[in-house]
Every structure is written in structure tokens, then in C-alpha cells.
Amino acid sequence: MVKISVITSKGGTGKTTTAINLGHGLALSGKRVILIDCDPHGDLGLVFSAEAEKNLSDLLRTGKTTVTQVRHNLFLIKSGGKSLTETELAIANRDGREFILRNALSDLRNCDFLICDCAPSRNLININALALSDQVIIPVSMDYLALNGAKHTIEMMREVRRFTRANLDLMGILATQYDVRTNLSQEIYEVLCKHFPNKVFETVIRVNTRLREAPSYGKTIFEYTINSTGSEDYFNLTNEVLRMSQ
Ligand SMILES: Nc1ncnc2c1ncn2[C@@H]1O[C@H](COP(=O)(O)OP(=O)(O)OP(=O)(O)O)[C@@H](O)[C@H]1O
Ligand SMILES: [Mg+2]
Questions:
Q1: Is the CB of 11 under 6 A from ligand 1?
Q2: Are 237 and 224 in contact (CB under 8 A)?
């Protein structure tokens, strides 16, 4: 199983959009995928209208949760909303607090991909997600603050690697919300390639209004408009991740 955290400390860069559409893209290609919503906002549960008795908050507190099937081959552990924030405080003094999620999911077998959609912060839930993961995708929207977010996230990965001895690799930096009409997008993309040689995904996710609309219809981009640049870009990203995971 390939375990991926989609994470960066900057908000609004396309983490959730990537978790949803990469997750569904992989599921459509025949892989079994489990999404874990690590953000108290709970956007994944909302988009997939998922009903679940238990969630990530319960998993961290009790080791038990509900895995909801949301599409063919696609499964979800909901976040727990506000209770996830309370749980973060409740587990802060536990021994081995960084490994609670990893231990709780150690029996998880029959999935090909696990994808954590992280919140834009440096919190214990994200550290648990990183300690569980073996790969990281950092979405960078085409602005300077997002670039800074990527640098902070790489530092955080280093720290987690050091004190958890996790096998954590940067799968790639993903250029998102790329506006082909502006020079800024091109400039930031060049800076990314220079700073992170061989670590920027070939696929670039362009600005596409359809990607913004799809969640309000409870759909992924592949269900909402297959003939869109958003669908084309996430299809290409799916194939790139599949190639890298062979
Ligand atoms: N390529 C894109 N084109 C147009 N809109 C996009 C694109 N990617 C994401 N968006 C929109 O930008 C907003 C932020 O995206 P998203 O929620 O995926 O970011 P996030 O990194 O998960 O945010 P947060 O840090 O708050 O969790 C959403 O309204 C989303 O629909
Ligand atoms: Mg999000």
C-alpha cells in the first residue's frame, strides 16, 4: 500500500481538491483507495455526503472507526469535525503520541493507496499523518506565500523523519491553480523547478472553474465534467502517481 499525505502549511492551495480527484482518479483506474480526512473542516465527508457512526477522532481515541464506501473502490474515514480538535488536545500527553494513527491502522490491508487530506497547520494530527505516510505531495498554488508554505512543510517532514524514523519521501511538489494567462504562474513554476529539481510533478493543475464548482454538486471532477482541463490535469496526475508507485 502506498500511503500519501497531501500537505502544506499554506491554506487554500488545493490539498482537498487534490485528495478528492487523485483519490477518485486512482479508484477509477482500478485501485482500491482509502481517504482519511485529517482536517476538522471535514470537507471530504461533505463532498461525498458520507454517513458514518465513527470517524478519525474516534480512531485516535479508541482505535475504532467507521470506513464508509463512497464510490466504487473508494473509501473514506471522516474527520470528526470539532471533536478532532478536542482529540488533538486529549492525545497530546500520551506516550508515542506521534504514532497513534500508524498503530491504529497497522491492520489495514486490502487497499492500494491511502491518502491523507491534511489541514494547513503544524499540528499533532498532521504529524500523525506524516508518521503514517511514506510519500508526501505538496500542492503549491502559484503565489509566493505558497512557495514559503512548501519550504516550511519540507522542514516539518525532516523533523518528523528525524524523531519518528518514518520512511518519508517527497513524492512531488504539485503546481496548482496555474493560470496560463499570467507571468506570475510561469515565474513561480520556474522557481519551483529550480528549488526542487526532479521533484516537481510534470503535471500542472491549471485554474479551472469546474474544479471549484464540482464539490457543491457532491461530485469529483470526473463525475462533474469529464471534458474539462481540470479533469484532464487530474487524469494526468493520476497516471503520473501510478507510474511512480510501480
Ligand atoms: N485548479 C483549481 N482551479 C480553480 N479553483 C481551484 C483549483 N484548485 C482548488 N480550487 C479552489 O480553491 C479553493 C481552495 O482549494 P482546496 O479547498 O482544495 O484547498 P486546500 O489546500 O484544501 O485548503 P485548506 O488549506 O483550507 O484545507 C476551493 O474553493 C477550490 O474549489
Ligand atoms: Mg483542505
A1: yes
A2: no
pLDDT in tens, 36-80: 999 999 999 999 999 999 999 999 999 999 999 999 999 999 999
Looking at residue 238, its amino acid is T
User: Three cell numbers at 22?
Assistant: 487523485
CB-ligand 1 contact for 217 (6 Å cutoff): no
In sequence order, what E strands does 24-156 have?
Answer: 33-37, 68-71, 74-77, 113-117, 135-141
Domain holding 76, by residue range, is: 2-244
Confidence of residue 163 (pLDDT cuts 50, 70, 90): confident
Whichever domain contains 217, its CATH number is 3.40.50.300
How many angstroms separate the alpha carbon of residue 210 from the centre of ligand 1?
11
How many Å apart are CA 106 and CA 102, to the nearest integer?
6
Indicate the number of domains in the chain. Answer: 1
Judge if the beta carbon of residue 205 lies within 6 A of ligand 1. Answer: yes
